TrEMBL record:
<feature type="transmembrane region" description="Helical">
    <location>
        <begin position="21"/>
        <end position="42"/>
    </location>
</feature>
<keyword id="KW-0472">Membrane</keyword>
<keyword id="KW-1133">Transmembrane helix</keyword>
<protein>
    <submittedName>
        <fullName>Beta-xylosidase</fullName>
    </submittedName>
</protein>
<dbReference type="GO" id="GO:0004553">
    <property type="term" value="F:hydrolase activity, hydrolyzing O-glycosyl compounds"/>
</dbReference>
<dbReference type="InterPro" id="IPR051923">
    <property type="entry name" value="Glycosyl_Hydrolase_39"/>
</dbReference>
<keyword id="KW-0119">Carbohydrate metabolism</keyword>
<keyword id="KW-0624">Polysaccharide degradation</keyword>
<feature type="domain" description="GH10">
    <location>
        <begin position="107"/>
        <end position="190"/>
    </location>
</feature>
<keyword id="KW-0378">Hydrolase</keyword>
<dbReference type="InterPro" id="IPR017853">
    <property type="entry name" value="GH"/>
</dbReference>
<dbReference type="GO" id="GO:0000272">
    <property type="term" value="P:polysaccharide catabolic process"/>
</dbReference>
<keyword id="KW-0812">Transmembrane</keyword>
<dbReference type="Pfam" id="PF00331">
    <property type="entry name" value="Glyco_hydro_10"/>
</dbReference>
<dbReference type="InterPro" id="IPR001000">
    <property type="entry name" value="GH10_dom"/>
</dbReference>
Length: 388
């Protein structure tokens, strides 16, 4: 296992976040709002596209609803933490107003040998999260060596050579955690090469989703929610498939009854989420097109779940943002999604910096520094959770 964002570098560390040309940032006007959180003025053109009739992001704070809770995207690293660090991580998640937590239930680890299951590491995290009243979004993902495709035997995120075997594992996980996990995300970012080796294939993912959906609904508690894999903010090229094209194709090759919500990772850094000048490279700005795809296919009543969103306070000069910008970006994105009726939970990536290397972008997405000290964004998320 590679190390991840909770003191170990996550499985997702090698990816990017998207291929993009970095231009000059557009100047924004800053406005100080309650709680000392600074937010940015939204450019009017995109505000109109998104149905917001004011150029300010905050609207004096948009309250959360039961359908729009905050969560944290934790990836795979929770299972490797000491008991003390796991407790501190989950405590600070809850104290930060994030009532959901998203993490992997990895097929590759649980069933490393076909037919032999080791649930101990996942059990520990699930039980610790539920003990704190956190709601879990489980991600069923990764492929054990014995189930990988010939061209991706060394890739943990190989597409499986047997979608029925993948579905069987999803069903076993749903049965084991039926009383503790009520929402499942099927895979992670299948529209990019790093998470769909040897290459993204919408038809294969559609079969995976169908097999997992049937098995989960058969074994989970009634009312379980199934979310499509959060799509990466990729652009077409190099084997990657842009989110809207991936979703459009998925509607053609799979039965939409297989899912209850659509997952998306609308990263926008180094731009603010509602910066209309950056629309070509800003996945957040493309959310209206994604939802329009859902509506065209009769899925307008379903929700978009933001299962990852964040910004790094380290990395190269073209990647990193200031701690203030990170706070602004999260506040803006959270308030924007709440102001529409077609969004579900919003998961911040991530809680804690993966490390202390300020030149490594993947070390610096946390709301907390690696030593658990809070950045401004932790306060911004806490303030967003407290909006009334």
């Amino acid at each position: 296992m590679t190390r991840d964002g909770f003191g170990v570098r996550r499985l997702f560390a090698t990816r990017r976040r998207r291929t993009m040309v970095i231009g000059a940032l557009v100047a924004v006007v800053l406005l100080v709002v309650a709680g000392g959180v600074t937010v940015a003025v939204m450019p009017a053109p995109l505000a109109r596209v998104l149905g917001i009739h004011d150029t300010q992001v905050d609207h004096a704070c948009v309250p959360a609803t039961p359908q729009t809770p905050l969560g944290v995207a934790a990836g795979s690293g929770l299972t490797t933490l000491s008991d003390a660090d796991l407790a501190r991580t989950l405590d600070m998640t809850a104290e930060g107003g994030m009532r959901w937590i998203r993490f992997d239930v990895p097929w590759s680890s649980v069933e490393a040998t076909r037919g032999q299951y080791d649930w101990a590491a996942t059990d520990r995290v699930v039980d610790a999260a539920r003990a704190r009243g956190l709601t879990i979004l489980g991600i069923v993902d990764t492929t054990p060596t014995w189930a990988r495709l010939p061209g991706a035997l060394d890739k943990e995120f190989s597409l499986p050579n047997d979608t029925a075997a993948f579905g069987n594992f999803a069903g076993l996980a749903a049965r084991r955690y039926a009383d503790r996990i009520t929402a499942w995300e099927v895979w992670n970012e299948p529209n990019i090469v790093n998470f769909a080796a040897p290459a993204p294939d919408v038809a294969v993912y559609g079969r995976m989703l169908s097999a997992a959906s049937i098995a989960i609904r058969t074994n989970a508690a009634p009312g379980v929610t199934i979310v499509t894999a959060g799509l990466s903010p990729a652009v077409d090229g190099g084997g990657n498939i842009a989110p809207t094209r991936f979703l459009s194709t998925l509607y053609r090759v799979a039965d939409s009854a297989s899912w209850d919500a659509v997952g998306i990772h609308p990263y926008s850094y180094p731009y603010l989420p509602l910066d209309s000048s950056s629309k070509s490279f800003n996945a957040f700005a493309q959310l209206p097109a994604l939802y329009a795809t859902m509506r065209r296919n009769g899925d307008g009543a379903k929700k978009l779940w933001v299962t990852e969103y964040g910004a790094p306070t380290g990395g190269t000069s073209k990647q990193r943002v200031s701690e203030q910008f990170q706070a602004d970006s999260l506040w803006s994105a959270i308030m924007s999604t709440r102001s529409r009726g077609h969004f579900g939970p919003f998961f911040v990536y991530s809680l804690r910096d993966a490390g202390t290397d300020t030149s490594d972008v993947e070390d610096n997405f946390g709301l907390l520094r690696n030593d658990f000290s809070p950045k401004k964004a932790y306060g911004a998320v806490r303030a967003a959770a407290d909006c009334r």
